[in-house]
């Protein structure tokens, strides 16, 4: 059975505030590159997964740009150990089990409401931010197949120090505008986007 997302009256607003506060405290600069055209649809946010920061970074983007009710899929064994993610939009998935289909169907239910956003890490595991290409697990395809109209937003977050004492946070976004929604097409489109982000960040080191 899926552990469904909750949005606690105190912890959810606090998490939105905390995301901005802690990012400003720990990073010397924050750059967001890319445009978001709000078409008043639910959002499926596909992001790279490189650190424990990732959920906080997505929450920050949501507060700053997307302004949707925040949800994210999380491994059941982690959600059971950590209570607070469930209070700020986290819900469970158990990989490799029949209940994974239930989690996918629940995701589609969330994405039936245009006020909602769902964050998914399609890699399914933490990898270096400089891993390329990324390999997607199959869940994204099934979520899209079961969902109505939505905006699919790619997000890539990269961190570099360059010559500064504090690291810089470089956040990139792009909307998927393709007409094919199989896992291979979306993975290829994301990897093309991700390669451009890596190249863009490499150029910053020369400036």
Describe the structure.
The chain is 39% helix and 21% strand. By secondary structure, it is α/β, with parallel strands linked by helices. It has one domain. Strands 1-7-6-2-5-3-4 form a seven-stranded mixed beta sheet, with helices on both faces. A hairpin with a 7-residue loop joins strand 6 (151-160) and strand 7. It is globular.
Outline:
This protein has 207 residues and is an alpha/beta fold.
Q: How confident is the prediction overall: mean pLDDT? A: 94
* Large-scale geometry: globular
Oligomer: single chain
Beta-strand proportion: 15-25%
Helix content: 25-40%
How many strands, which pairing sense, and closed or not: the largest β-sheet? 7 strands, mixed
In the predicted model, the low-confidence regions spanning at least 5 consecutive residues are: none
Structural class: alpha/beta
């Amino acid at each position: 059975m899926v552990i469904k997302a909750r949005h606690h009256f105190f912890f959810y607003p606090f998490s939105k505030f905390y995301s901005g506060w802690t990012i400003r405290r720990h990073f010397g600069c924050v750059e967001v590159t890319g445009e978001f055209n709000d078409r008043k649809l639910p959002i499926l946010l596909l992001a790279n997964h490189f650190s424990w920061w990732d959920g906080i970074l997505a929450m920050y983007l949501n507060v700053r740009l997307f302004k949707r009710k925040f949800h994210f899929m999380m491994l059941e064994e982690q959600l059971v150990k950590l209570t607070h993610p469930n209070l700020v939009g986290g819900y469970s998935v158990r990989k490799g089990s029949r209940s994974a289909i239930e989690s996918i169907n629940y995701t589609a239910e969330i994405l039936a409401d245009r006020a909602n956003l769902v964050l998914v890490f399609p890699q399914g595991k933490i990898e270096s931010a400089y891993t390329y290409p990324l390999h997607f697990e199959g869940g994204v395809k099934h979520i899209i197949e079961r969902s109505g109209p939505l905006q699919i937003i790619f997000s890539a977050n990269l961190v570099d120090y360059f010559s500064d004492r504090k690291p810089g946070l470089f956040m990139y976004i792009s909307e998927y505008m393709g007409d094919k929604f199989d896992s291979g097409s979306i993975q290829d489109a994301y990897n093309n986007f991700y390669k451009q982000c890596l190249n863009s960040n490499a150029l910053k080191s020369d400036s």
